[in-house]
Amino acid sequence: MTSGWFITFEGGEGSGKSTQAKRLSERLKEEGHSVTVTREPGGSPFAERLRTLILDPTLETHTPLAEALLFASARADHLDQVIRPSLAAGGVVICDRFLDSTRVYQGYAGRVEPRLLEALELIVVQHTKPDLTIVIDIPAEVGLARAALRMEAPVHTAPSEKPPKQPRGLLTDRFETRDLAFHKKLREGFIEIARLEPQRCVVVDGQRSPDEVARDVWSIVQARLLSDTA
Ligand code: TYD
Known about the structure:
Elements: E1 6-11, H1 17-30, E2 35-39, H2 45-55, H3 64-88, E3 92-96, H4 99-108, H5 114-124, E4 132-137, H6 140-149, H7 180-196, E5 201-205, H8 210-229
Parallel strand pairs: 1-3, 1-4, 2-3, 4-5
The protein binds thymidine-5'-diphosphate.
Thymidine-5'-diphosphate binds next to helix 4.
């Protein structure tokens, strides 16, 4: 094998992508593959620093272009430092969100011109398109409710102290706080991409147990990727 497989997971908030990315990685490792699990925005030291900035709920940019360029910058570094070297070494890269999140969050449901995003994609992603994209689909209401449950339990122990709620960074990120209409639009966007690119994308019903979803994901990976090398 001269180049490994690039698999991405996409979907709205609370769809269970990250769990599935981890489970797929474990399964592939059991089969003897070398696997890198990574995420966007982030995935490399430089991109993780940009992630903190991009998702900071106290920093709202009113220039959608500025935001899109930050995502693109983080992605360029992540591709260079992590994704391309791992693929070149013949490994499997599993990325939690990638270019479709930009197309959907910034383009379809956001305020950035699709032409601009296409240009950035050409420059930054180039030929490093995913071999397989798994879209975990759930209704926006369900995903948002699940995401709200991720609120961690209080961390304090002293009974006299009033325990502060400790939201995970995600819960307060700038995208999650958008309204339901925005999240419904995200769902439509992912489905539309999958419809337009059926060779690359498969939609999986995320409203089932993690085990059932993982079983589907595994059959898809076997059918689409593993059978090629059998
Ligand atoms: P994250 O904590 O990774 O959320 P999730 O668990 O839902 O993946 O936060 C990433 C947020 O950034 C998420 O709301 C989607 C958004 N995002 C974009 O808007 N554009 C992008 O290109 C990417 C990769 C993510």
